[in-house]
Design brief:
heterotrimer; A alpha+beta (558); B mainly alpha (313); C mainly alpha (327); A: 558 residues; D-Maltodextrin-Binding Protein, domain 2; Dipeptide-binding Protein, domain 3; 3 domains; 16 helices; 20 strands; B: 313 residues; mainly alpha; MetI-like fold; 2 domains; 13 helices; 72% helix; disordered N terminus
């Protein structure tokens, strides 16, 4: 090689590197295929098992492929008959009779019948690892009455159990009866009743699910397929939305108006209704001084929730009221209870006075003292990496310090944090709520004595370990009541107990994240058209099916 | 390689002199001293780096010279406070790695035979097992924190030094002055301590610099992955948080650019210092330099004298 | 041949050490995969379901040596257990496709950086103390001191996010099916440009310096002087005589560099969401998917060992002297 050719080689190399940069090609999206960005994974693993709890199956499994008996709409608070057409309590609330929809076909053309329903619940009984909602903790047996009627016999009267039964996705008996181990079964080619059932392509970077040719809602779905690129991180998924590579996502996006909407104000939309899980500051009520409701209320009043929302959440949510109920429980909310809840207003003077009157005075150095004279020093636990929580905790700590409390943020990684809160080994911690279609589940996990576990024993909820007799009465009565007016009265009662006792300190209802690109499709729910929750994350009770069956290609879109 | 240091005396003086004589070394030393000062005194002035100072993701302004993070903290304060832990971990890992490397390498080289065979096998195995993946796996099992990071880096980083020092010891062992010491019946430890180690000062120093360079880079990498204590403030965790808080998406370059540049500056300074030292610790390069200077004065083009084959192991 | 066999034996020992480390690490530290699963469900799972799941995972109570033997025999058959995060997929299946991309990324980065760096090193030695020789080395040392992943972040931010010249991640466009077509290959190259480029820029300095210094040394040696004295053209002397001989130390360290770059490219993959082992490994760590994590570590180690052996073959071919010294 001569030097000139050597030099020429360098030039060619440099040129070819530069060339790579100039041949950018844009991804061309098929006209009637919606690109959905859900589940942040580096590469896809083919799993469409709707029953397994061991790992998350691919998103469409519960959002388009398999369908539940009833769909719960968290925006309107209504329960919509889906694979079932109706329900009826018999034998004084001991038996729930469901009628199943006729004319529903599995995607392989066979008929859907009541025995598929009974078979599915039989699987959950046989394999407790599949019983995600613990329905067999209250069910006694499931009987097929006819092709379209199935009876659920309960061990005791437990009205809220109907919601859990109704949320169960149903699998076909004729393909699942031969599955040896339904826990590890990957179900690579699902047979189902949902609007999207045909796996058109499956690669580790992208897969596509096409429409069900036998879907029971005539003329639906109006889109041909759902397409899922694997985006390994929130950031990457958000970039895909920003650059129009994806049509629909359910991620937290920082400063969304600037980052997303401003890039294409006509097409880029989002809707973050505050209907998600409530974010609480939990105070361990088994430890002094947090066993005193006045202390919990004073802590609550020290928190500047407006600042907190600005700093932690770009003001995507609203400040919580003292009932702790998010907007998904709107029909249940009791305005008198809300009005009584003075302790969610930021008021340092009143908070300080309240602590003084509870016997916790400030020392000469301005430090708040326990009754035995030791200064208050507490850590607020958060999960490291959950930046909204970390920021929220910082605002909280700032407020508590103004009350003379030596408060600090303490971050743990998830499993360490989770173990501590579950075992009750904390003073103060941020945490989420446990929700269901009615406030029953919500309040049960906040103040039912039945959910209080001894310290050291892991508890799924009620981490603050608070039990109230008054709440127990209302909760037990609710379990036995199927009368809507009575139910409403009982939920009001629960709200009044909560407001009076402050078992936990509500901060803000978590928004339900939804970003969508209206350039190619119509029919996304929005604040103007709030027919359902727009978030793809709302598949647990089938809500996302409402959106999937309503999306349509935009006329004249490319 | 000959024992440059043993011939030309010990002490700090020679190193200071060397740094002053070599432009690259001077630049490196100045940068390092600046960072050391920041590490030592910066945190006193910077205030609490974790404190919420304002809205998150503010661009640099007079109020916050380097802007705020996604957590509403002051980037400059975090940078300054992070310097301390990062440099501390970097230098202590560097020291430990050289120490262990010397222990294993000199032992292997000095005693030879079966001990050598076994130790050589050990460090050669550690050399071929890819370091970062091993570090990640170990760190994942241990509780997160600077100590874990340091430990992991030591475990994955000592082998290279051991290998180089073994080779050096092996060649020294053949030398007359070592042989003489052995004949006079001095204890092994004494021979190693007062005959062998001093002749390797420059090599050890250069290894210390190289190991520190490695330690700082690897530490930042591990912490960037979230394997450090993410609630501590270090350079690596700063970058972790920048990534975690969507620095790219929000265009918040100020949350990751300064930290990267600082890491690079320290690395650059260490490399410069090392190449400066190379000139004095490597007598042939020194000779060549003198020869070249001489020829240049005569206005002739320099030709190379006897070759120095760099030991690439 | 004997040299290669001996090296092979050594790599087998190294592989065994890696396997053993892999076995004992998790057992030294308490923890159980079901707890990690708990984390993934954010408490959505009833405790009853959790208990049943724990049983599904069947944590063995056999004596340690027995576990070790089972582990070794499973590993030999390529069975690294079941992934927690991708349950019920076996680890091998999860790793499967990713390895190709990692090897491609790290391999091409190492090769390009080696070739470019070596050429520049020759150039620097050739025009010694010219502008290239005085500017390039310190510049590349500075760039080389930047953390790989940080360079990658900056490159992604400027060239990808702001200027939109390069895609933001992945190994190829989502709408393409892998195939040996020009379109696909071009797309893969386009996607690899930034990740590979950032590693190349960061590592090139090392090759340059190494090559330059050896070149300078070799150019002063007797046989080069002899060639020169014989009146051969200077460029011929430099390339045929000096460069060829100076190449050897660089090639020898190629194997080591591969392991090193592989580590670094793991981080780069994270930044570019490149579908290789790096991203998988980090995810496995974050989701505490220990079986997957260990499987990836082993696979990477074996890949590096294999590459080192290949380098040995090349060295043997380049330098016949080793054959003599080995036997």
């Amino acid at each position: 090689m001569r030097p000139c050719s050597f030099r020429a080689g360098l030039v060619i190399l440099a040129a070819s590197i530069a060339l790579c940069g100039c041949t950018s090609r844009r991804v061309s999206l098929p006209r009637d295929v919606v690109v959905v960005s859900v589940e942040q994974q580096a590469s896809w693993v083919r799993n469409f098992n709707p029953l397994t709890t061991a790992t998350a199956p691919r998103w469409p499994t519960l959002a388009g492929i398999y369908e539940p008996l009833f769909v719960f709409n968290g925006i309107t608070g209504k329960t919509i008959p889906w694979l079932a057409t109706g329900s009826e309590w018999r034998e004084g609330g001991r038996v729930l009779r469901l009628s199943t929809r006729s004319g529903v076909k599995w995607s392989d053309g066979r008929d859907f019948t009541a025995s598929d329903v009974a078979f599915t619940f039989g699987l959950l009984k046989k394999f407790p690892a599949l019983d995600r909602r613990a329905v067999w903790s209250f069910l006694d047996r499931v009987d097929v009455v006819s092709d379209s009627v199935v009876d659920f016999r309960f061990q005791r009267v437990f009205i809220p159990g109907a919601d859990e039964v109704g949320a169960q996705q149903i699998v076909p008996q004729h393909t699942w009866k031969d599955v040896k181990d339904p826990i590890t079964f990957a179900n690579e080619n699902p047979v189902a009743t949902g609007p999207f059932t045909e796996i058109r392509t499956f690669q580790n970077q992208v897969y596509e699910v096409g429409r069900n040719p036998n879907y029971w809602q005539k003329g639906k779905p109006m889109i041909a397929a759902l397409r899922f690129p694997a985006y390994p991180s929130n950031d990457r998924a958000n970039m895909a939305m920003v650059f129009d590579e994806a049509d629909w996502a359910g991620n937290f996006v920082p400063a969304i108006d600037r980052v997303y909407v401003s890039r294409a104000p006509k097409n880029h939309g989002y809707w973050f209704p505050p209907v998600g899980s409530m974010v609480f500051l939990y105070a361990n009520t088994k430890r002094a001084p947090f066993d005193d409701p006045r202390v919990r209320k004073a802590l609550s009043m020290a928190i500047d929730r407006d600042l907190l929302l600005d700093v932690a959440l770009f003001h995507y949510s609203r400040a919580a009221d003292a009932t702790g109920l998010s907007d998904s429980y709107s029909p249940w909310r009791d305005s008198t209870a809300i009005a009584e809840g003075y302790w969610v207003k930021h008021d340092l003077v009143r908070a300080s006075a309240m602590l003084d009157s509870a016997g916790f005075r400030k020392g000469p150095d301005g430090k708040r003292l326990l009754k035995n004279g030791t200064p208050w020093k507490y850590d607020v636990f958060v999960v490291s990496g959950w930046s909204d929580w970390v920021r929220a905790a910082q605002v909280i700590v700032r407020g508590l310090r103004e009350l003379g409390i030596d408060a600090n943020v303490r971050t743990y990684d998830f499993s360490a944090w989770f173990q501590r809160v579950q075992e009750g080994d904390f003073d103060l911690s941020l945490g989420w709520s446990f929700d269901g279609p009615t406030p029953y589940t919500f309040y049960r996990w906040l103040m039912s004595s039945s959910t209080v576990k001894p310290k050291g024993q892991a508890s799924m909820g009620n981490w603050q370990r608070y039990g109230s007799d008054a709440a127990d009465g209302a909760l037990t009565a609710f379990e036995r009541s199927s009368d809507p007016a009575e139910q409403k009265r009982l939920v009001s009662q629960m709200q009044h107990v909560f407001v009076a006792q402050a078992p936990a300190i509500p901060l803000y209802p978590g928004p339900s994240w939804a970003e969508y690109n209206m350039g190619r499709f119509d029919g996304f729910p929005s604040a103007k058209d709030p027919y359902a929750d727009a978030s793809p994350n709302k598949y647990d009770r089938g809500e996302v099916l409402l959106v999937l069956t309503n999306l349509r290609p935009k006329a004249g879109a490319r | 390689m000959s024992s440059a240091a043993s011939g030309s005396g010990h002490g700090l003086g020679i190193w200071v002199e060397a740094i002053r004589n070599d432009r690259r070394a001077t630049v490196g030393a100045i940068i390092l001293v600046l960072f050391a000062l920041v590490a030592a005194f910066g945190p006193l002035l910077a205030g609490d780096p974790q404190a919420l100072v304002g809205m998150p993701l503010q661009a640099p302004s007079w109020h916050h010279l380097l802007g705020t993070t996604g957590q509403g903290q002051d980037v400059l304060a975090q940078l300054i406070v992070g310097t301390r832990v990062s440099l501390l971990v970097g230098f202590s890992v560097g020291l430990a790695v050289v120490f262990i490397g010397a222990l294993v390498g000199v032992t292997a080289g000095f005693y030879g035979g079966r001990i050598d065979g076994l130790l050589s096998l050990l460090f050669n195995v550690f050399l071929v097992i890819p370091g970062l993946p091993l570090a990640i796996v170990i760190a994942a099992y241990l509780p997160s924190g600077p100590l874990t990071v340091a430990l992991v880096l030591i475990v994955t980083g000592w082998a290279w030094n051991a290998r180089v020092l073994r080779a050096q010891t092996l060649s020294l062992r053949q030398r007359d002055f070592v042989a003489a010491a052995i004949v006079t019946g001095e204890s092994d430890i004494r021979i190693i301590w007062s005959e062998i180690l001093p002749t390797m000062t420059s090599l050890l120093l250069s290894q210390l610099i190289g190991s520190t360079l490695y330690a700082i880079g690897a530490q930042v990498g591990l912490e960037f992955l979230g394997l450090g204590d993410v609630s501590a403030v270090t350079w690596g965790t700063n970058l972790y948080w920048a990534q975690n808080d969507s620095a790219l998406l929000t265009g918040a370059w100020w949350t990751f650019a300064p930290t990267g540049i600082c890491v690079a500056l320290v690395g650059f300074a260490l490399s410069m210092l090392n190449s400066g030292f190379d000139e004095i610790s490597n007598p042939r390069l020194q000779l060549e330099r003198a020869w070249r200077a001489h020829l240049e004065r005569l206005g002739q083009r320099a030709t190379r004298s006897t070759p120095v084959v760099r030991n690439h192991g | 041949m004997r040299f290669l066999l001996r090296r092979l034996g050594f790599y087998l020992v190294a592989a065994w050490v890696a396997l053993t480390l892999n076995f004992f690490l998790p057992r030294l530290i308490p923890g159980d995969p079901a707890t990690a699963l708990f984390a993934r469900f954010r408490g959505k799972l009833a405790p009853e379901a959790m208990q049943a799941l724990r049983e599904t995972f069947g944590l063995s109570n056999a004596p340690l040596w027995k576990q070790y033997l089972t582990y070794l025999s499973h590993a030999l058959r390529g069975d690294f257990g079941i992934s927690v995060a991708y349950f019920p997929s076996p680890v091998v299946k999860v790793i499967g496709s990713g390895l190709v991309w990692t090897v491609f990324l790290a391999g091409s980065a190492v090769l390009i950086s080696f070739v470019l760096g070596t050429l520049l090193g020759i150039a620097a030695a050739w025009w010694r103390r010219g502008w290239a020789d005085s500017v390039l080395p310190p510049l590349l040392v500075f760039i080389g001191s930047l953390p790989y992943f940080w360079l990658a972040m900056v490159a992604l931010y400027i060239l990808g996010f702001t200027l939109r010249w390069f895609p933001l991640g992945h190994a190829y466009a989502d709408d393409l099916t892998p195939a040996w077509t020009w379109e696909f290959i071009a797309d893969v190259v386009h996607h690899a440009a930034l990740p590979v480029g950032s590693v190349v820029i960061a590592t090139m300095g090392g090759w340059l310096l190494s090559m330059r210094n050896t070149m300078i040394t070799v150019m002063g040696s007797d046989f080069v002087n002899l060639a020169r004295a014989k009146g051969l053209a200077p460029d011929r002397v430099v390339l045929r005589y000096a460069a060829r001989n100076a190449l050897l130390p660089s090639v020898t360290s190629l194997g080591m560099a591969l392991g090193f770059v592989l580590g670094g490219s793991l981080l780069t993959e994270v930044v570019f969401s490149y579908p290789g082992q790096g991203y998988l490994l980090v995810q496995a760590v974050r989701t505490q998917d220990y079986p997957l994590m260990q499987g990836i570590f082993l696979v990477i180690t074996l890949a590096v060992l294999g590459a080192n052996w290949l380098v040995d073959v090349v060295v043997l071919w380049l330098d016949p002297r080793i054959r003599d010294s080995a036997s």
